[in-house]
Amino acid sequence: xxxxxxxxxxxxxxxxxxxxxxxxxxxxxxxxxxxxxxxxxxxxxxxxxxxxxxxxxxxxxxxxxxxxxxxxxxxxxxxxxxxxxxxxxxxxxxxxxxxxxxxxxxxxxxxxxxxxxxxxxxxxxxxxxxxxxxxxxxxxxxxxxxxxxxxxxxxxxxxxxxxxxxxxxxxxxxxxxxxxxxxxxxxxxxxxxxxxxxxxxxxxxxxxxxxxxxxxxxxxxxxxxxxxxxxxxxxxxxxxxxxxxxxxxxxxxxxxxxxxxxxxxxxxxxxxxxxxxxxxxxxxxxxxxxxxxxxxxxxxxxxxx
Length: 305
Description:
By secondary structure, this protein is α/β, with parallel strands linked by helices. The protein contains 10 helices and 12 strands.
């Protein structure tokens, strides 16, 4: 593990001197440790030059594997420490809003029907929930689509349509319904540091038809920090958003219009947990959460009918 941390530090700083400073050690033993690692693996990990170092193909592979291995060790330590507490505690994460509301209802019902474990709720920002499960800060999480499923298992909890939200004076505002291709040319709000998959999803191109979306040009986007900023940009006519129906309905305004998008992929909330987990409390909570969401959705459908 120490050698992997040394290697990652050099890869991230691109110099032995910078990595040594960050690690709080002298440069010569760091250089020797990397050379020993290369000899043991039988490959060169870095191309060395006067300007610094760059990763070889083998080095890039080891960097990916090292980051996963180090994260797995840290997650194992965090879960082990939590398991050794005097009382059994299960940590569940969700983002603010619809997901945290669902999680709160699940936890309240779970506490009323089970003696253990105690469930602690963590509310975190956009896209952090899956990472929290991977690194051991949380045992389970409710995440919305799309999400990075690496190292996780999941079960679908809820599914709902996405709709277009546009300003009342927008060119599309008088339409009865839309297709994803109608959003071509529009500026789409996305959260900071959105991945390529997220940009496709929020612009309606994740299930794109090769004929309809033959243009190689990526959708124009503008970065936002939260959903209220999305709504303001839409109302000002600066963007068009493709939002889950429940999210759009939570922000009613007279200066925006909601329009169905008949071919948009749905928004899905899922419960996720570490792949290969053998925790009984996690399995019990996941089963309860899936059943609770199924029963709640069935009740909502009966009420609507």
